[in-house]
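Input:
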Amino acid sequence: MKKTIIETECGIISAASVVGNQEKKGPLGEFFDLHGTDDRFGQKTWERAEAEMQRLALNTALAKCSMRDTDLSAIFAGDLLNQCIGAAYGLQDFDSPYFGLYGACSTAAEGLVLSALVVSGGMMQRTAAVASSHNCTAERQYRSPLEYGAQRAPTAQWTVTGAGAFVVGAEEESAVRICGVLPGRVVEKGVRDSANMGAAMAPAAADTLLRFFAETGTVPGDIDLIVTGDLGCEGGDILCELMQIEGRDIREIYQDCGMMIYDRESQDVHAGGSGCGCSAAVLASYLLPRIAKGDYGRVLFLGTGAMMSPQSIQQGRCIPAVAHLVCLAPREEQV
Amino acid sequence: MKKTIIETECGIISAASVVGNQEKKGPLGEFFDLHGTDDRFGQKTWERAEAEMQRLALNTALAKCSMRDTDLSAIFAGDLLNQCIGAAYGLQDFDSPYFGLYGACSTAAEGLVLSALVVSGGMMQRTAAVASSHNCTAERQYRSPLEYGAQRAPTAQWTVTGAGAFVVGAEEESAVRICGVLPGRVVEKGVRDSANMGAAMAPAAADTLLRFFAETGTVPGDIDLIVTGDLGCEGGDILCELMQIEGRDIREIYQDCGMMIYDRESQDVHAGGSGCGCSAAVLASYLLPRIAKGDYGRVLFLGTGAMMSPQSIQQGRCIPAVAHLVCLAPREEQV
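Output:
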């Protein structure tokens, strides 16, 4: 079997998040850096608001580590909008080389994987990874304008209004190490229900996780936390079942950012949160500080993305998905 | 001034192109590997046809160097379609980690830059970069459905139906070296006419080129060929003027893939070709063999991309652009 995990020596120097009103009211509300009360962030359109969240997130992450845009060798960024205009417009004033990504909801992880590869390989000194989503831009692009008040399926997820930014650099200046990355393959298992993206993405997450265990010779017991980006309750269940069938029971160490960001009892989010901003904001503001503190020793962060478009669904195609894995650990931890 | 050029040691092992009917009839027709006569490539929709072109291009590039998908450590791919479904669907059957890119028409160069960085840094052994565009998918997504027969502006360009794929690996196994890369910054100079993308992208190309000359201490006379992706006649003129103002006259060594791929006299393409597939196909099938033969000693390949969306234009925003530079040379050449 060909080895696809790549050991890296680098880390996350700084991270920041920006979220909307619904996310601020959720169980992780106190951890986010910035939030808006009307989800507009002072902008005239939702798309401009999303771009502004990316700008604010990266500005905040840079400020936290007393760096400037010119300290970055590159920015890796993306979002869910057609032609990724959230990233392109939001980050256009940063004086740094720019790589646009499209990894759907796996974008934060994709940016971290690429950052880790170029920093760890000595090709760049410091980079940033940025990702965002906005409930109102996503609803009108993928589903219906908000004003229609369309009814949502029980398996549908709620696109997070949020952005996360990460500054990646040398291990010595980091609080959290990136000790390995495992980029995902495109996996498509015949799901074509775009109101059940968790089901489409779970097989991709299982594919990446199973490769991780097979290639590293580890078992779930060696890991403290496996956290997916936005499988939600449906996709998370499917992932755990798929893993159990393969003899890798992960239920005790498994969490999902989409299940953490909202209170499903009191917030009407159906199967949980989703979107590039979901995993980006939860990782930046809640998970990284806990890893840095040593609450978790070894964490597998799995960004999950469903790469269909409304048009590909209309044309009867199934939903291809991808899951990129980033292996995180506190800096002191000896692995 | 901070250095943004990165020296690399790797090369292009193999490349292939697939084009449509209009491109086959153009001046470079004889050089392309595969072509379709009805631009459908056996598929029911234009979007599926575009995805099929990506699949065919990568398959052909791999076949040329007797490699398989499992020999690749990663694929870097993208296109112009919403959510990049050309790449996601076209490449989903390749058993290799997948990084989705959105660099608009700079995607081929973006994929080559990232490939060069991860291979040269020793993080991956071999990667592929793939990009495509299709005239019929682009027209209906960005402008009007073909059936409307909308009139086009004289500055408008013609989106190329084409795809290109490149296999990147060690210098020793390559015919053409990638000796350096210079990733572009987002540049936006107030152009908001989406029927004149050349004008929007020219300042980004100038920004990258000027940094190249300043950082390397070279002058245009040291370079044998500067070739942009798809500035067309409008953008190309603007680039040459911008460079001249800065004391770097490039006119004698300057070409543009968008100007090379069609015969503007006999083919009704207005300001020239454009699209991710334009630079990808011209580089893969016409330029690389000429560089390998030694017709050019040192070539700067500049992928240019305009990162607006129809929605961002409707919302009154200007067009941000990016230009990624790949420095190419024949393998024997001593630089």
